[in-house]
Design goal:
Pfam families: DAO. The protein is about 25% helix and about 30% strand. The protein is of the alpha+beta class. The chain folds into two domains: about 170 residues, FAD/NAD(P)-binding domain (3-Layer(bba) Sandwich); about 140 residues, D-Amino Acid Oxidase, subunit A, domain 2 (D-Amino Acid Oxidase, Chain A, domain 2, 2-Layer Sandwich). A hairpin with a 2-residue loop joins strand 11 and strand 12. The radius of gyration is 21 Å and the shape is elongated. The two termini are about 25 Å apart. The structure holds flavin-adenine dinucleotide (FAD).
Amino acid sequence: MEQVDTLVVGAGVVGLAIAAILSEHQDTIVIEQHSQFGEHTSSRNSEVIHAGIYYPQNSLKAQLCVAGKGLLYTHCQRYHVPVQQIGKVLVATNESEIEKLHSLVAQANNNGVTDLQFLSTCQLRERAPEMNAVTGVWSPSTGIVDSHQLMLSYLNKLSQHGGHYVNNTRFIKAHFEEGHFVVTLACGEEEFNLTCKHLINAAGLFAQACASNIDALATHHIPPLHYCKGQYFSYQGRHPFKHLLYPMPEQHGLGIHATLDLAGQLKFGPDTEFIEQLDYTPNEQAKPRFVEAIKRYWPKLDSTRLQLSYCGIRPKLQLQGSQDFVIQDYHHHGIKGLINLFGIESPGLTASLAIAHKVAKQVNLERE
Ligand SMILES: Cc1cc2nc3c(=O)[nH]c(=O)nc-3n(C[C@H](O)[C@H](O)[C@H](O)COP(=O)(O)OP(=O)(O)OC[C@H]3O[C@@H](n4cnc5c(N)ncnc54)[C@H](O)[C@@H]3O)c2cc1C
């Protein structure tokens, strides 16, 4: 039976980052069920490098987003990953939102994001022309990244360290015995076993399903999973956006915001909709809601230029309230060598390297 120090399940941006970092010190394999890496959430997002503004102080999201942002900019420069520190404008569209904007700035400060600046009317008009805003805040550290190239760079780092990426290989189950895991994998119809000391479950929307097939893990450690769809409309034609533009956040997301990709394509979204099945089909019927939300900050929107684009799905752990990333190690579930990552929604892309370093620390502490 093949043996490996660490098996990472899931080649999304988080699993690949973890595999890239862990492979510096140990024999590492990352497996992916599909023929391509990153086909789920990691290629269905806004590709924004978040500053770390919104998250509750001391939450994993706040800590790992702020740390991850710095690590990501450095990594992108070093590995020539296309990235642009384009900045974003947060806008209050009426008097009642001003207080919310001030509390976001205070929240950001608590999280160590100290570079936000209130914009004068003149600066606001210059950075966000045509926008309906009573006041605005500038976030200079927000950026955009090519998520596919980022994942490729993690893969390159993994192979430079002698680690392996194996596609078309599905995690089926794991049996824990005498300090190691006997893992059953499937390649097509064929099943085979492998042993590993460390098993990292980074399966994103499938993390709960994988966890439920690890025999030693008590079911009460597996949180519920709720699919929360977020879809986008792209905008064809000329537009005035030079930076990303965000309205005030909503309960489950950041509000239907305006982002640009590295080719300059403008898109709006994502919205939030809880769904029962994993289904990436975008829904044209959402258009009136998009038009209404966008017109609140961009009244001149020509809605005929909005085109249905793509969807992503957030792995929510609860239907109400804010939730944090859940990264479970030995101290949570008592199984040496097992790390489960649940609920890695936004800002998981931004935080990917910081998550990877946290997991590496947990693995190395367990090794000692
Ligand atoms: C709409 C939306 C917008 C977002 N925007 C941003 C943003 O702008 N900035 C930001 O920082 N974050 C953003 N995020 C969050 C970010 O995209 C995610 O946190 C990140 O992509 C999660 O990566 P992952 O590797 O955990 O999951 P995934 O990308 O889902 O990867 C998990 C992988 O595991 C594989 N897998 C699952 N089960 C098995 C199995 N049994 N065997 C083998 N392989 C398996 C899957 O096929 C998949 O490839 C957004 C998310 C959404 C939904």
